[in-house]
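User: My notes are a mess, but here's the protein and zinc ion's SMILES. Can you give me a structure?
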Amino acid sequence: MKKCVWCKQTESEVKFDKQAHTIPKSLGGKNICINVCDLCNEYFGNHDNRLPPIETVIKETFNITRTRFLMNEQNIGKNKPLTKFSSIYFKVNLNQNKPSLSIKQQYGYDREFQKKIGRQIKRGIYKMFLEETERQKKNGHDIKFDFIRDFARYNESDYPVFYFERKYGIIAISMDWVKSPSLFLSGDYKMKYLIKHSNFEEFEFLGHVFSIPTSKDWNLYWDDYLIQTSLAKKNHFKSIKLINHFNDIDLALSILND
Ligand SMILES: [Zn+2]
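Assistant: No problem, the inputs look usable. Here's the predicted complex:
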């Protein structure tokens, strides 16, 4: 019987008629998590208490990176993976030599808006993780992930997302991953610099390397994790930082110009 990975309700209580894309369809995502009910699925695509929809924020931000990769391979245009780049929130210049990114003026006046975008990016990253781990490993209902439900689905509390800054502008990524982005979880690592740790999960998404805790009491394990992950990353990454703002992620891939 289907059981929602977010609200924990079953087929006898709620509907499961709609297909829940783990990664937004508008970003080329193809994977479906069957254990997401229609109400929770809708939640991620709608405004909640004047917060921009999580799915829209994820699409808006990572579409910039995706476009940058597709551009290099001339994959934008009629009958191509992306017809035309457009953005609701961002003013984007993807000039190969000097890409730049800022928030559109009508949103720029709202000081709180950038903070909201930052929070929704983090919630969206946890959302993609939980649905993907459920899809790939059938472990999304584990109670250790309850804090992810509280944060991503119910907007409670705050949890970190870490970002690894690259040292060099060389990103090994296949065009298939760009056309339909996936999350590769531990055990399925394509990259040697990603490590497996019992209280953190590392994954690469559209060339960006992220890490999130998989335990509510993550600070207890932080020192141990930091030593291990820093060692594995030292040849390819220069730092690890906490995401608060969309600019904390190199969305326009300016590293490729260095
Ligand atoms: Zn649900």
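The pocket of zinc ion is lined by residues 4, 6-7, 9, 14, 37, 39-40 (CB under 6 Å).
User: Great, I'll file this with my notes.
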